[in-house]
Design goal:
The chain is an alpha/beta fold. The radius of gyration is 21 Å and the shape is globular. It folds into 3 domains: about 1-40, no CATH class; about 40-250, Rossmann fold (3-Layer(aba) Sandwich), CATH 3.40.50; about 260-305, no CATH class. It has a 7-stranded parallel β-sheet, with helices on both faces. The chain has helices spanning about 5-10, 10-25, 25-35, 55-70, 90-95, 125-135, 175-180, 195-210, 230-250, 250-280, 280-290, 300-305, and strands at about 45-50, 75-80, 105-110, 140, 160-165, 185-190, 220.
Amino acid sequence: MKLEEGVLKKDRRALARLITLVENDSDEAQEALRVLHSHTGKAHIIGITGPPGGGKSTLVDKLAKELRKRNKTVGIVAVDPTSPFTGGALLGDRIRMSELSTDSDVFIRSMGTRGALGGVARATSDVVKLLDAFGKDTIFIETVGTGQAEVDIVKIAHTTIIVTMPGLGDDIQTIKAGIMEIGDIFVVNKADRQDADKKVMEIQAMLELGQKKNSWEPPVLKTTARDGVGIPELLDLAENHYRWLLESGNLKKMSIEKSRAELFSIIEQNVEKVVVDRVDEGEIDKLCQQIANKEIDPYKAADEVLAKTGIKLKK
């Protein structure tokens, strides 16, 4: 039985093996993804992001347990920092979600970023597709927790939850700029701490200064995930947002935007592969030395490299 057939038959071993192949960017994985593409698009994908220390893993753990109480199946992709020794994930999230790992209707996968920026691994989108085709009702993506630059999650998730907490120093600094613009729901976790209400007011004030995402107004909710406080309410808000996406027609628009981003990402990856295959490493080193010495500009150097692949830079 092919691995993609196993995924459609809800074989967990086939799913795990195929995810590994996806992470290793194998040809077999690409072929499987082609076959499974028409079986995707049914899951609600929820991104959980925000600065480190906010309690994202605990929040995901509690949300997943609440979903299981509602008889929903769950997939979790936990993106961890890459180990400098093995290149794999540090598996901190697996430890925190140990209780869920014994539930056959929950599938957890930790992934290393492998040097990718933006809070998610390069293979995250494809792994989510596999979980979708496997039949998971809701899929959580927990990002690595890099702060303001962590905005790539919006290219994958339907609903993006920004998690922060009181006492992070310069509170506004941790949630401003790009990450502030992608949030559909804002959570002040560890709300039993001092200044939680102040944090909520600061976020609400910043949201009032920004542009509304069509007719959806991002709510701000206090939670104490460790004790389960606010978890059912947060899940209700996430499901309300997904319902709004469906009813407003924004889900279809979002799907087209995500497809465009994915298409260009695949093109970019394949161009990179062609360059690596056709251009000698020593030639690349020589060009880099010339750029550093101001003997050649980087655009001309790129033009020379791409010329070997048959691609010309736009003039």
